[in-house]
Amino acid sequence: MNLFHPGARVIDAVTGEALTEDMIAAAATQLATEPGGVVFLPMETTLPVVARYLAALRLGRPVLLLDPEHDNASFVERFTTTEVHPDLAVLLTTSGSTGNPKLVRLTADAVRTNAEQIAEVLGITGDEVAVTTLPLFYSFGMSVLNSHLIKGATVVLERTGIMQRDFWTAVNEHGVTSLAFVPSQYEMLRRLRFDPAKYPTVRSLTQAGGRLRTDLVSDFAQRMATVGGRLYVMYGQTEAGPRMATLPPARLEEKLGSVGQALPGGAFTIEDDEVVYRGPNVMMGYAETAADLALGDVQGGVLRTGDLGHVDDEGFLFITGRIKRMAKVFGVRINLDDVEKNFPVAAVAGDDKLAVFAVGVSDDEARGLRTKIAEWLGTHFSGVVVRSVEALPLMPNGKTDYRALESSL
Amino acid sequence: MSNLQRLREAFRTALDLPAEAPVDDLRYQDNEKWDSLAHMSLVAALEDEFSVMIDTDDVINMSSFTEAVNILGKYGVDFNE
């Protein structure tokens, strides 16, 4: 698979250097000298890494995108094999760092199709300029890269973030036209009093990676409208390579709270209250062991999302909750039952935070618990809220009353 | 407590550092705990602690402890008391 359209450009914001065909060819030559099987690739936001990623895809070598700030030895240990299915192209990690995360197996067709679907609904052409706002190992970040490269657009590699001057300088210097963010970044932008008039080339914002509260959806749609720009609310899961839906900006106010309609070629149905997606971008399946990497497609293009929701008569999807007890912290999924297995707490989902209730702990103990849980999750401590309670509320059947805990937040 | 001590305390709390950790030489992202999320809680803590409202430009320019001293100085916080 070649994702690098002849007109595409990847530029390092710090050095100004651009990715060349020669760099990809050199990376391919290097890869060809290495043992076969999975390419383990810590996805730093740099030109050599992007070159190696594109080279692996061209050679048909499955590439596992890894967090460069983690110790990835366990992935190498678990998934080193030369017995890989010929359709396998990209492997992504699922939630967080707890336990032994499963991998999502994607074919080249799924990755390419999703890039095309995204480019179509966002109107990405060769004139667009994106900047990295998310890590490239994260499915949303990867899809920003793919959907621009496949259309001959430009992607600027920027290693700082929205809280730093260098980031915004790069946005204006490179004429960035669109920015992609997860909900916690919209909260930061609100604090920063983000004013698109200061960034005259930026005309679209996209949002995915969890539910953004509707007042912020309206707020950012309006900010963009004042400069003739747009906000695209999207819905995805890593298992769908990753994006599945988008809310057309023209319908946003009228359909507020919806995550939009299925991408071209995809469809949503509701089966036993669960949102089910069918489309060409659905994964082949999971991999828990090296042996699983030899498996073919076990999904048949069908993804049970684990989300609860409903679809209106025009096909707009509204998500109402999760079937399994999950929380998202800074866009990363966390299994609440796993939290409770490891700590003496009751865990519920807050707004992009994990909220836990501990019986009779002091302020100091609560702080210590917060630090421990955040370390265990591998996340920043501000993503965890610890509350002390005299006793946990119970339902008539004796189980913890999570609704009562949620409503006390 | 002097304003300088209050500022050091605010940094330690926002960056989740131990009580006596030196902070005067800290720079954004030299310290692995000083990321965008920590920066947001730091700014919120400084606004609360010194009862100021920090401008967007100042928020994104606050790339070190020294810069924080300079920026808060502009808002009338006196560190030479």
TrEMBL record, chain B:
Which residue range or ranges hold the Carrier domain? 5-65
Q: Which residues form a coiled coil?
A: none
Q: Output the Gene3D superfamilies linked to this UniProt entry.
A: ACP-like
Q: Which Pfam families match?
A: PP-binding
Under the heading InterPro entries, the entry gives: ACP-like_sf, PP-bd_ACP
* Protein name per UniProt: Acyl carrier protein
